[in-house]
Write a structure and sequence with these properties.
mainly beta; two-stranded antiparallel sheet; 2 helices; 11 strands; 11% helix
Length: 148
């Protein structure tokens, strides 16, 4: 299928790469279909591109690469909603923002994706330890990590 984007033009992706977020994302409840774009091999950052809105995309990353002690407690009812039979089938991403010279991750609102069914949900963690702007790395370090 073709996906129009404002950043990369029109790209072709396989239908099975579309990730459904039945509840949408926080602030974007009407956008429910996304695809994950890899800007290059061996990168730790990806684009979560809306399939239905060319201008809507988020930089995301696997938070465990930056915060090894980070984990997302998934309750049994959330596993059921996501169709998860095993936790190993879940992939966690966080939305990345740039604040001054620091890349931050929304560790309070992680995206949990069932890698088998391609269904996802943005969760909201109650734990005060994690914030919406948790420091991940300085921008100069990010550029080096992205090119590694």
């Amino acid at each position: 299928m073709e996906v129009r984007t404002t950043r990369f033009g029109t790209i072709e992706i396989a239908e099975d790469r579309v990730i459904q977020f039945p509840k949408g994302l926080l602030g974007f409840s009407d956008r429910r279909r996304f695809c994950l774009l890899e800007p290059g091999e061996d990168t730790c950052f990806f684009w979560l591109q809306s399939v239905d809105d060319p201008a809507l995309a988020f930089v995301v990353t696997d938070p465990s690469l930056f915060v090894p002690e980070y984990s997302v407690p998934i309750r049994p009812e959330q596993m059921s909603e996501l169709g998860l039979e095993r936790l190993e089938d879940a992939q966690v991403f966080v939305i990345v923002n740039k604040v001054d010279q620091t890349l931050t991750g929304n560790l309070q609102g992680p995206l949990v994706i069932n890698t088998i069914s391609k269904s996802g949900e943005q969760m909201v963690l109650a734990e005060k330890r994690w914030t919406t702007r948790h420091s991940l790395m300085r921008v100069g370090a990010a550029a080096r990590a992205m090119s590694a």
